[in-house]
Amino acid sequence: MHSHPTYKTAVLIFALSPGAAAENKPFLSWNSLAAKLTAATKKKVAATGMDFFHFTEAEQEGHTFGERYTNAISEVYARGYDAVITIGNDSPGLQSRHILEAKNAVENGGFAMGPSHDGGFYLMALQQAHFDPAAFAAFSWNTAGVGQEVLSYFRKKNAAVHTLPPLYDLDRPGDAKKLLATLKPVLTKVLRLLTMLLKPGAPLYVYHPAQTLELSGCPVWNKGSPLPIR
C-alpha cells in the first residue's frame, strides 16, 4: 500500500507552555530552557512542511493526563485529518527526519512509535481508524510500562508497527547527563574527521544537500542551548 496524495496527516505538539512547564519541572526555567525547547521543536516540525498544532494547558481539556492527551488527538481528527503524529517538546534528539519517517509509516497503513529510554515514548503516529478514545484514556500514562502497553494495543489491532530509534526525554536534571553521554562519541568522531580534513594536502570536500554524513553507532544530534549539569 502506498500513501495516497489526499491523505492528511498533522503533527500534534502536546506540551505545556514554557511558564507552566517550568513550574512543573523547575530546572527548565534555567536560561529559558523550556521556551527554547518549544521553539526548537516547532522549527523541526515546520521543516517537514506538515500542518501542526500546539496544545498547551490552555487548549487541553480533561482531568487526567490520559483524558487531556486523548481529547487533543480527537480534536485534531475532528479538524479533518486522517492521521496524527504526536510529539512533546522535551526530546532534544528528535529530528525532522524522525517525523517524516513516522509519516511514511502511518500513511502506508501502519503505526509508528519513537520509544524513550524511560519506558514511554517521544513520538506516536496513528491513523484515526486505529484510535479508540476510551482505550487510550485508560492507558497507564506517566508510568514506565506505558510504551509497551500502547505497542500491545496496536499489535492487537494488527497494525504494522514501525519503531524509531530510542531517545532520551528531559524529565529531570539528571537526564541532561545522559544526553551529554550520548553526545560525547559524536564529538569525538567529528573532531577526528575535522583533524583529517585540516591536514595539509587533504582533499577538498564540497557539500551537497542530497548527501548526509552518518557517524556509525552514534545518534544524530541537533545543536542547541547548553544544559545545566549538576
Explain this structure:
The termini are far apart. A hairpin with a 5-residue loop joins strand 4 and strand 5 (121-127). The chain is globular. The longest helix has 25 residues, at 173-197. A six-stranded mixed sheet has the order 2-1-3-5-4-6, sandwiched between helices. The protein has a domain at 9-163: Alpha-Beta Complex (Spore Coat Polysaccharide Biosynthesis Protein SpsA, Chain A). The chain has helices spanning 18-24, 33-46, 65-78, 96-107, 133-137, 146-156, 173-197; strands at residues 9-14, 51-55, 83-87, 110-115, 121-127, 160-163. It is built from seven helices and six strands. Helix 1 packs across helix 2 (33-46). The chain has 230 residues and is an alpha/beta fold.
Give the topology, please:
Blueprint: E1 9-14, H1 18-24, H2 33-46, E2 51-55, H3 65-78, E3 83-87, H4 96-107, E4 110-115, E5 121-127, H5 133-137, H6 146-156, E6 160-163, H7 173-197
